[in-house]
Give the backbone structure.
Amino acid sequence: MVTDYDCWHEEHDAVTVTDIIRVLTQNAANACRVVAEAVKSMPAERTCKCGSALQHALITDKTLVPPDTLNKLEPIVGKYFV
């Protein structure tokens, strides 16, 4: 999601930081909607191995991960940090 189109396009008018922040904020909202729609369209049951893709990818010792970080990441990696 582009925030500063004019940075390389010589014929495009210059933009302000305010313009860039506005588009960045809009892009963040768009990204949230995209993720929400993607999650809605996911099947209830998986027929692929994507649900266990991180099983052997995480090598970090759980005791070294701050509790706040564990809480934030729990939906993604919680089943691997038991």
User: Anything to note?
Assistant: The mean pLDDT is 86. Helices lie at 17-40, 67-77. The radius of gyration is 19 Å.
